[in-house]
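Office hours follow-up: a student asked to see two folded examples consecutively, so here they are.
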Amino acid sequence: MPSFRVRFLVAVWAMFACSAVTAADMYGKVENGRVSILYSDRQPDDKGYVLFMKERTGQITLTRRGQAAVTTNFQPTGQNAPRVVPSQFHGHILAAAKETNVEPALIRAVINVESGYNPQARSHAGAVGLMQLMPGTAQRYGVTNRLDPEQNIRGGARYLRDLKAMFNNNLQLVLAAYNAGEQAVIRYGKRIPPFRETVEYVPKVLSHYKKYRAADL
């Protein structure tokens, strides 16, 4: 099968065309402080790209800013499909979204990538729970039990709300700050820090966010 590549910046969802894609893996890297995405059926020649999602299929429909808006439509397979929100968390997500004016789809996408909806999840860095709150973040937002799903989701949503205000609703920077800390984003000139984990994290959450919005989950 001939190689098919589409390069675009997540910030503007650039490029013009609509093309069919079959079994294209997703690679990402930071270029000039923004995440650059490459869809390819083989490892890119540019070693700066790292693989973070495999076998994306479906239609790609992308636009350059200032031109007619069109949509992106991927049909995810296997582990790339968005997890259905467990019913015990659904109400907490909606309540936190209403309180903070943060889209439920964004909260769900963060939970999906952060913990896979495991309320007992713990990271080596000390983050805990569904939205992987660090101790300082939990204290800042009044979370006394990070393992409690309701408190954890509310605290994470409040943090997303404040990051959206801090970075003028730029979701790339919001998510970069959620992963690496707002000071890291500021230190790098309000650009995505060139940390491998963050470079992979931002487009992964954005991908799930778009799928949750499209599915209205």
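And the second, which I mentioned at the end of office hours:
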Amino acid sequence: MFICRLCNSAGEAPVFYAVEDFFLGTAFREDYVRCTACGLLQARRVLHDHSPLYDSYELHEPRSRLVGLARRIVMRRAYDVVGPVAPNSRLLDYGCGDGRYLATMRARGWRVAGIEMTTDYARELANRLGAEVRAVDDDFTDWSCAFDRLTMNMVLEHLEEPRAHVERAFSLLVPGGVFYAIIPNVEGTEARLFGPRWHDLDPPRHRTFLTRAHLETLLVESGFEAPFFDTVSIGASFSGSLLRYISPRYDRRLLAALLPLGELWSAIVRDSALRVWARRPR
């Protein structure tokens, strides 16, 4: 039985059926529905173990310096790269991927920590970075009110229960601490243009697609002060959508060849991703 992840309603309207895992080419197929009460687009089934979705996940693998540089260039609009507010300021990256963002922020003066989806990968990344990284289902009692900044860089869409994670983010920030997130913009031009071939649909890893209205309500209900939003476009996203449209399978070389078109798109159409900043009241 379908239950909306955001409002707990049981009403659903089908949107996309049996969408293939284009990025990793696994046997997973995902149906996406829209809640008839709150409008949230989401995967119909709820998964309790996400670890199989990330086997051989390219974005978790160490990269060469050249590939790392190329990724930083195409993803430069996604990350909120700021210096610490005071000596010994702490930053938590919630869903820290390959850890490059944590390394960048540590180089800027932050004391950093991270959260990842599975225990094994969190341990591997902690050893690689020399920083504390915990699994998402760990106990975070000792991290209560511990961080000056918390970032979720393309993370909320991976989570089955966005409300629970936003509420946790609030609890981990110090009073006055800043929350930052960027998510795929399901209301953007790219999502409307490509439909089930939209790169950021990314089944089965992407589970929910919050709109600005959803996210604003969720943040305020979780205790944050009035959020500030803007939109940007990321060249790699548009390039991935084009690749999905013209190719039957993922091809890294063809994706690289399409990146100039993605960069041109991102300079003209600036709404493929939604960014938000919010503050925990002092």
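Two things to take away from it. The mean pLDDT is 92. The chain has eight helices and eleven strands.
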